[in-house]
Automatic annotation (TrEMBL):
<keyword id="KW-0472">Membrane</keyword>
<keyword id="KW-1003">Cell membrane</keyword>
<dbReference type="InterPro" id="IPR001245">
    <property type="entry name" value="Ser-Thr/Tyr_kinase_cat_dom"/>
</dbReference>
<dbReference type="InterPro" id="IPR050823">
    <property type="entry name" value="Plant_Ser_Thr_Prot_Kinase"/>
</dbReference>
<dbReference type="GO" id="GO:0005886">
    <property type="term" value="C:plasma membrane"/>
</dbReference>
<dbReference type="GO" id="GO:0106310">
    <property type="term" value="F:protein serine kinase activity"/>
</dbReference>
<dbReference type="InterPro" id="IPR008271">
    <property type="entry name" value="Ser/Thr_kinase_AS"/>
</dbReference>
<keyword id="KW-0547">Nucleotide-binding</keyword>
<protein>
    <recommendedName>
        <fullName>non-specific serine/threonine protein kinase</fullName>
        <ecNumber>2.7.11.1</ecNumber>
    </recommendedName>
</protein>
<feature type="domain" description="Protein kinase">
    <location>
        <begin position="157"/>
        <end position="440"/>
    </location>
</feature>
<dbReference type="InterPro" id="IPR017441">
    <property type="entry name" value="Protein_kinase_ATP_BS"/>
</dbReference>
<comment type="similarity">
    <text>Belongs to the protein kinase superfamily.</text>
</comment>
<dbReference type="GO" id="GO:0005524">
    <property type="term" value="F:ATP binding"/>
</dbReference>
<keyword id="KW-0067">ATP-binding</keyword>
<feature type="binding site">
    <location>
        <position position="193"/>
    </location>
    <ligand>
        <name>ATP</name>
    </ligand>
</feature>
<dbReference type="GO" id="GO:0004674">
    <property type="term" value="F:protein serine/threonine kinase activity"/>
</dbReference>
<dbReference type="InterPro" id="IPR011009">
    <property type="entry name" value="Kinase-like_dom_sf"/>
</dbReference>
């Protein structure tokens, strides 16, 4: 069926792809969506002849259509409509993998995967080590899971396997059996995110997670193992973090759970800071845009890893000082200049980290409407207490029962004030934050015995 002459976005896609490329793309799609690309050479020629040269990036066209579709009627945004908005040029010159367990894109031509006006070009970034233990891969290296496999791993997405949920959808705990060759009964626990099919937010975040976490490898970033893209659902599969989120331990533990000791809090802060510093200096400059306690996950040893890259953006390029974007994030953590102007920089993440520093000191949430009116916004309330030891003690987490070095607590409070500075340029970089925290954690500063590390 011919493309409607009024649908310029789809015409632009048709013009940019040759018949051979259409066939290649169709082969990579789920069966139910292949008929969307059944366009003959004659129809392509007719559609292309009526379309003027498209000068704006395809990513902008896609995002505009996605936003408009969501505004009209979110409930009518079906999976088929969303998949039509996938950046098809990302699949150019790619070969269909022989096995369905992994995806290896061709390196013979630039590969662009666009998400919220973000473009990652595999041809311009070589595989290299960044920030010591981090790595930026030229292309995503992810396993493709069958939907039936994930369905079995979660016992048909049973309610008793639910770990949590949010704007993206629901997160389940799953058990993946070892592939052939493993011992009988052996396997691993994973976390599985399922797209909310009635919202457009989930689809955009699904793409962002694949684009970013599929290429980033660092000890302080949660590991994305793979994804499922089927006729029925879109899912993401992550490593399982045994101790859940920092938010749960800091705010929802109650008397049944021991409060996080001071040295563990410092360990978590250092790990999270290293993760953000890696993102900012990874060669492509990524801004997380939604850094908060619920997006800091903890493994069995309370090793911190940053999660949820659905709102992440590429940082400014070509000498620009900032990225102009739609204001989105979490109130209480978002930098004031970003909220006011939509101007996003790496220093916006630094501000968010400053908020987390204050939460770790006080044990209180960034925003809590159950507190008295003057105290609902934590930063605005606590700031005057941070500069001096005698006033800082008044707002320190009472569950610590004074078991923390006063000098170290004051140094972290001063670091928080620097991160929360009103002038973004005067805030420290995340690398400077890491160095400061490591210095505070040193035996010389806190007066404890050096930690013993076992290999």
């Amino acid at each position: 069926m011919p493309l409607p002459p009024t649908d310029k976005t789809l015409q632009g896609k048709a013009k940019s792809l040759s018949p051979n490329e259409i066939t290649s793309v169709a082969a990579a799609l789920p069966p139910m969506d292949r008929n969307m690309l059944s366009v003959s050479t004659r129809q392509l020629t007719m559609a292309s002849s009526n379309v003027p040269n498209v000068t704006s990036p395809l990513g902008k066209q896609i995002n505009s259509e996605m936003i408009n579709a969501g505004k009209k009627d979110v409930r009518k945004t079906t999976m088929r409509k969303l998949l039509r908005l996938w950046p098809w040029d990302a699949l150019r010159n790619t070969t269909k993998p022989a096995k369905k367990e992994s995806v290896n894109f061709s390196k013979s031509a630039p590969i662009s995967r666009r998400t919220s006006n973000m473009t990652l070009r595999a041809s311009t970034v070589s595989k290299k080590s960044i920030a010591g233990s981090g790595e930026l891969l030229p292309t995503p290296n992810l396993r493709i899971f069958h939907f039936s496999e994930l369905k079995a791993a979660t016992r048909n997405f049973s309610n008793d396997t639910v770990l949590g949920g949010g704007g993206f959808g629901t997160v389940y705990r799953g058990w993946l059996k070892e592939e052939s060759g493993g011992k009988q009964g052996s396997g691993s626990v994973v976390a599985i995110k399922m797209l909310n099919r009635e919202g457009i937010q989930g689809f955009a975040e699904w793409k962002a997670e694949v684009n970013f976490l599929g290429r980033l490898s660092h000890p302080n970033l949660v590991k994305l193992l793979g994804y499922s893209w089927s006729d029925i659902e879109l899912l993401l599969v992550y490593e399982f973090m045994q101790n859940g989120s920092l938010e749960n331990h800091l705010f929802y533990g109650g008397s049944a759970i021991q409060p996080i000791p001071w040295d563990i809090r410092l360990k978590i802060l250092i790990g999270a800071a290293r993760g953000l510093a890696f993102l900012h200096t990874s060669g492509i400059g990524i801004i997380h845009r939604d850094f908060k306690t619920s997006n800091i996950l903890l493994d069995g040893s309370y090793h911190a890893k940053i999660s949820d890259f659905g709102l992440a953006k590429l940082g400014p390029t070509d000498g620009n000082s900032h990225v102009s974007t739609q204001v989105i994030g979490t109130y209480g953590y978002a930098a004031p200049e970003y909220v006011a102007t939509g101007h996003l920089t790496a220093k916006s993440d630094v501000y968010s980290f400053g908020v987390v520093l204050v939460e770790m000191l006080t044990g209180l949430r960034a925003l809590d409407k159950t507190r008295p009116a003057r105290q609902q916004n934590l930063v605005g309330w606590v700031k005057p207490y941070l500069p001096k030891t005698n006033t800082l003690k008044e707002v320190m987490d009472s569950r610590l029962e004074g078991r923390y070095p006063n000098k170290c607590a004051l140094q972290i409070a001063q670091l928080a004030l620097n991160c929360l500075g009103e002038i973004p340029k005067k805030r420290p970089s995340m690398q400077e934050v890491v160095e400061t925290l490591e210095r505070i954690d040193s035996p010389v500063e806190n007066g404890r015995q050096p930690r013993v590390h076992f290999s």
